[in-house]
Amino acid sequence: MRKLIYCLVLLLVILSNPTFSQVKPVTDYINEVKSLSNRADVKAANDYIDRNHESILREWIGLTEINAPSGQERERAKHIEGLLRKYQLDDIHYDSTGNLIAVRKGSGRGPVIVFDAHMDTVFQPGLQIKATIREGKVYAPGIGDDTRNIEALLTTIRALNEAKIKTKGDLVFVFTVQEETTMNGAKAYVKENKAKINQYIALDGGYEGFTYAGIGINWYRHHFIGPGGHTRSRTPPYSATLPLARAIDRIYQLKVPTNPSSNLNIGMLGGSEVVNAKASDAWFTVDLRSTSNEVIADLEKQIKTILDEEAARIGMTVKTDVISTSPAAVIPGHRESYLVRMSEAVHRVMGFDPPITNAGSNNSSAALREGISSISTGAGPCDGAHSLAENCEIEPLYKGIKKVLLLEVTLAGVE
Ligand SMILES: [Zn+2]
Question: What separation in Å is there between the alpha carbon of 126 and the centre of ligand 1?
């Protein structure tokens, strides 16, 4: 009896969680999204976006021209805060990590939905940014990653206000710091707030599709350590570059699966500092990625075997430095979750045939690792991220902003 009650309670807990409760087919959600998007107030919000193309573009450029290297987001944050203060939001504050958080409260009858866009850029401090427009595109470092999505969030807040839309659930807008380096902004935010968050939408990159899981990324530096010596010293012993060359050749023969999506790259190597010495320490890096932590573990083991064999063959030793590790962010069954199906429906109603992939690499992973249902997508097509030639198409952004707005009202629900 006791066991039965326990099972029933467990079932109730599972059913009350929107991630695992009865998930409907996508077609059902498409109908729900369609009727929502036909509401007069949602149409009024879209009209607001249509009427304000010029000012949206100007604001987007203005934000982009305030450079915000990771860890130095303050000036840009202050500018965003200044805009948010005009929107009659329920709460605007910074957390201890420097994230800027703005809450648009719902009626209290719905879930808490977080929308994240990161404020930081990869560009060096002091870089003067001046946007230029030609042939329907706007060019500026950081214009896409991730300023287009900051602009999308700001515009949707104004559009919701303009159309007097009262959501059921709370919309929490989090402008995060340090996404490009450590994701420490999002990590700290989800750690502090995970009990309160129902769904987490990271807006970063993307336009037509979205991701529902994060790829794991491990970086290593492997060294072969030998005796070294002059070019003219007795051989063997050889230079430590010999086992390095043999190992690299063998590692590139390993089977790296494409499903689950995985990658392996040896990008850097080094040996002696001079031409006329045998290397006593020859090293190379490995960048290992997969959407499956099992694949990463398996490849890691196979690489270790190769290194040990090649070192033993020539009487040397191996030393491995782990530069960084970041496991794949996966929630079992998440592809068929409520959030993923509903997000697919929103994209289809917007006229997209969305690529839905599990190889995201952004703040969404921080949420998924804390067990929070999360996707990542974005508000417009851009090119050349992380380069000085970064650019975005202008016209599609307005449609992308409408998509973000539709995600907001669908997920939070409307009174
Ligand atoms: Zn980004």
Answer: 20
**Is residue 376 a contact partner of residue 360, using CB atoms and an 8 Å limit?**
yes
Question: How many alpha carbons lie under 13 Å from residue 157 in its C-beta half-sphere?
Answer: 24
Q: Pairing mode, if any, of strands 112-118 and 170-176?
A: parallel
C-alpha 304 – ligand 1 centre gap (Å): 33
Is-cis flag, bond preceding 236, omega within 30? yes
DSSP string, 320-385: EEEEEEE--B--TTGGGSHHHHHHHHHHHHTT----EES-B-SHHHHHHHTT-EEEEE-SS-EE-T
Closest CA to 120 of 173, 193, 186: 186
Are 204 and 294 a contacting pair, CB within 8 Å? no
Contacts of 213 (CB under 8 A, 6+ apart): 291, 328, 329, 330, 331, 334, 335, 358, 359, 360, 368
Sheet hosting strand 391-393, strand order edge to edge: 132-134, 137-139, 391-393, 382-383
Strand, coil or helix: 133: strand
Distance 60 CA to ligand 1 centre (A): 16
Q: pTM for the complete prediction?
A: 0.86
Q: How far apart are CA 243 and CA 296, in angstroms?
A: 23
Structure tokens at 102: 């703005």
* Ligand 1 centre distance from Cα of residue 145 (Å): 5
3-state secondary structure of 283: strand
Residue 44: is it exposed, middle or buried by C-beta count within 10 angstroms (0-12/13-18/19+)?
middle
Residues 4-42: tens digit of each pLDDT:
555 555 444 444 455 455 899 999 999 999 999 999 999
Between the CA of 375 and the centroid of ligand 1 the distance, in Å, is: 14
Structure-model confidence comparison of residues 314 and 15, the more confident one: 314
| C-beta separation of 309 from 243 below 8 A | no
Q: What is the mean pLDDT of the chain?
A: 95
